[in-house]
């Protein structure tokens, strides 16, 4: 049974930083591309960042480019999202997702976690 458990969300001021973590279990983590996606009430999932199974190549969406970094530790079955220079428009529920395809830019998931809430406000 695939399980993805996110943590690290909270309240941040504009310009601040947060680091999200996602611990995976129930599948061979090192075989799969992983992504982070976010959801604002009333809207669908927005892809934020993804990386290949070996973590050597990463991609981030244009709205967060230069501010967010995705990484993974396959020994710990964990994927991270470092978020710097947070802005109010980054406020959302952030989900860790397991990609179906090897290329993380192909936005197709078969599992995602319950999410961790990020609120950016002064």
Describe this protein's structure.
With 122 residues, the chain is mainly beta. The chain is 0% helix and 50% strand. It has strands at 3-7, 10-12, 18-25, 34-39, 45-51, 58-60, 68-73, 78-83, 92-99, 109-112, 116-120. Strands 2, 4, 5, 6, 9, 10 and 11 form a seven-stranded mixed sheet that branches. A four-stranded antiparallel sheet has the order 1-3-8-7, with no helix packed on it. A hairpin with a 6-residue loop joins strand 5 and strand 6 (58-60). The chain is globular. The mean pLDDT is 96.
Largest sheet geometry: 7 strands, mixed
Work out the helix count. 0
- In the predicted model, the low-confidence regions spanning at least 5 consecutive residues are none
Number of strands: 11
The helix/strand class is mainly beta
Question: Could you tell me the radius of gyration in angstroms?
Answer: 13 Å
**Span from first to last CA?**
40 Å
Could you state the order of secondary-structure elements as H and E? EEEEEEEEEEE
Morphology call = globular
Strand content range: over 45%
Q: What average pLDDT do the residues reach?
A: 96
* Estimated helix fraction: under 10%
Write the layout of secondary structure elements.
Blueprint: E1 3-7, E2 10-12, E3 18-25, E4 34-39, E5 45-51, E6 58-60, E7 68-73, E8 78-83, E9 92-99, E10 109-112, E11 116-120
Parallel strand pairs: 2-11
Antiparallel strand pairs: 1-3, 3-8, 4-5, 4-9, 5-6, 7-8, 9-10, 9-11
């Amino acid at each position: 049974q695939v399980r993805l458990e996110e943590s690290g969300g909270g309240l941040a001021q504009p310009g601040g930083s947060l680091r999200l973590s996602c611990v995976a279990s129930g599948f061979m983590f090192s075989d799969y591309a992983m992504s982070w996606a976010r959801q604002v009430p009333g809207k669908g999932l927005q892809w934020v960042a993804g990386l290949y199974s070996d973590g050597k190549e990463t991609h981030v969406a244009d709205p967060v480019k230069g501010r967010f970094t995705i990484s993974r530790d396959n020994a710990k079955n964990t994927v991270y999202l470092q978020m710097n220079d947070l802005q109010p428009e980054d406020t959302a529920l952030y989900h860790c997702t397991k990609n179906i395809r090897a290329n993380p830019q192909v936005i197709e998931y078969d599992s995602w976690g319950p999410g961790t809430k990020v609120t950016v406000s002064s």
